[in-house]
């Protein structure tokens, strides 16, 4: 199959961001990722031919963000099945790639269950692999549909909370097309406001240490023509104090049964600031990010990442022969210890509303959340 993205980047750009796609070249099936580690400097594809390569891509954030991890995990199972690897072993490896985003395990289990069901019903390995792929594709499509619904519900909520429009929205991390089969979660709402001429300003937290805001959200905002301004994370307080934030919109990696929200580290301080300044703090996430088996925030496993992500900065470079394509620059003296949790937890009482594809929960209560999830999953 022709590699449209590599052959014609401009055409692909106009069709949206190719975050991940399944391909079947003559050498065998592959999962193709837009390598998010190289953005915004370069739009380069990463071709994963096996599960260890995909797990590495997940751990190093070539593919990232809760919904995209779920979709990639499901395709990873399909890849293992199609290439004749042990599906149980592959599913375990994928499931353990990153611990916090609940969507990952959800996607992996869904494709693996479809595969094992087909195999138990007597399907050939090829047929069972095709069933796993169909399940991954279905999840991919459903996520795109969920994005569109979240954008609608989110925009309606902003209209209700902030009549008059002209929203100035602060966001953290990256929650757009790069994390999704569709337009994303929180950034999809900002995008919908932008298309209606209602987005006055998107304030983009740079999101240290890996700069998902500066590298990825600014990249998406620029492509879609949003009025955006980048800020260092520690500038957010002064922005609230100046009265320049109308709402905070973030995504979620996992929402516990009590409504506690694990999201990119730095989300919780924004919730505290928002409460102090009487600004709505809105979480936008599909119901696949709600984990009824995790009772509360304390039970959410928070990924701890290597200290060098804080003590060094890694930049792309044009390599000399034999050199790697990146160079690391020290930000702290050699041997400095770093505290580097990937996520933090915002308690439900600081969250004004949770927007899902099935509607909005506000105030955030366990009963309200459970009711909405049951309704969405049965509908
Ligand atoms: O470490 P990352 O880049 O995978 O973290 C991503 C986030 O924290 C996003 O905000 C989250 O996945 C929600 S996006 C729907």
Quick take:
This protein has 379 residues and is an alpha/beta fold. Helix content is 41%, strand content 18%. 48% of the residues are buried.
Span from first to last CA? 36 Å
Main-sheet strand order equals 6-5-4-7-10-15-16
Order of helix and strand elements from N to C terminus: HHEEEHHHHHEHEHEHEEEHEEHEEEEEH
Biggest sheet statistics = 7 strands, mixed
Shape: globular
- The tally of helices reads 13
Mean pLDDT: 93
Helicity range: 40-55%
Quantity of strands, as a count: 16
Small molecules (ligands, ions, cofactors) in the structure: 5-S-methyl-1-O-phosphono-5-thio-D-ribulose
Residue share in β-strands: 15-25%
User: What are the segments in which pLDDT stays under 50 over at least 5 consecutive residues?
Assistant: 1-15
Radius of gyration: 20 Å
Secondary structure category: alpha/beta
Oligomer: single chain
Organism: Streptomyces zagrosensis
Protein name: Methylthioribose-1-phosphate isomerase
Family: Belongs to the EIF-2B alpha/beta/delta subunits family. MtnA subfamily.
GO biological process, one term: L-methionine salvage from methylthioadenosine
């Amino acid at each position: 199959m022709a590699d449209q993205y590599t052959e014609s980047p401009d055409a692909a750009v106009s069709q949206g961001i190719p975050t991940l796609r399944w391909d079947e070249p003559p050498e065998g099936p592959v999962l193709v990722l837009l390598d998010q580690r190289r953005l915004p400097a370069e739009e380069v594809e990463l071709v994963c031919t096996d599960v260890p390569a995909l797990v590495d891509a997940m751990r190093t954030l070539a593919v990232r963000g809760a919904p995209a991890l779920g979709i990639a995990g499901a395709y990873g199972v399909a890849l293992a099945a199609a290439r004749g690897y042990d599906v149980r072993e592959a599913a375990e490896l994928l499931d353990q790639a990153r611990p916090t985003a609940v969507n990952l395990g959800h996607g992996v289990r869904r494709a693996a269950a479809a595969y094992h069901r087909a195999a138990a019903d007597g399907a050939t390995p090829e047929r069972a692999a095709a069933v796993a792929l169909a399940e991954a594709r279905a999840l991919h499509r459903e996520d795109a549909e969920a994005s569109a619904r979240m954008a609608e519900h989110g925009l309606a909520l902003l209209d209700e909370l902030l009549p008059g429009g002209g929203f100035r929205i602060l966001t953290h991390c990256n929650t757009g097309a790069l994390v999704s089969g569709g337009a994303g979660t929180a950034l999809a709402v900002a995008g919908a406001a932008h298309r209606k001429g209602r987005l006055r300003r998107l304030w983009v937290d740079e999101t240290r240490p890996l700069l998902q805001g500066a590298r990825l959200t600014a990249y998406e905002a620029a492509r879609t023509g949003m009025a955006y301004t980048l800020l260092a994370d520690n500038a957010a307080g002064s922005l609230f104090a100046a009265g320049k934030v109308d709402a905070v919109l973030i995504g979620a990696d996992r929402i516990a049964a009590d409504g506690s929200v694990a999201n990119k580290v730095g989300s919780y301080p924004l919730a505290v600031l928002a409460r102090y300044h009487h600004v709505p703090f809105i979480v936008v996430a599909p119901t696949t990010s709600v984990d009824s088996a995790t009772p509360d925030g304390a039970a959410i496993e928070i990924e701890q990442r290597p200290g060098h992500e804080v003590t060094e900065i890694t930049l792309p470079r044009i390599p000399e022969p034999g050199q790697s394509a990146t160079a690391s620059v020290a930000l702290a003296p050699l041997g400095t210890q770093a505290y580097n949790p990937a996520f933090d937890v915002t308690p439900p009482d600081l969250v004004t509303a949770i927007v899902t594809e099935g509607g909005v929960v506000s105030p955030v209560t366990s009963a309200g959340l459970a009711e909405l999830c049951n309704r969405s999953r049965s509908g």
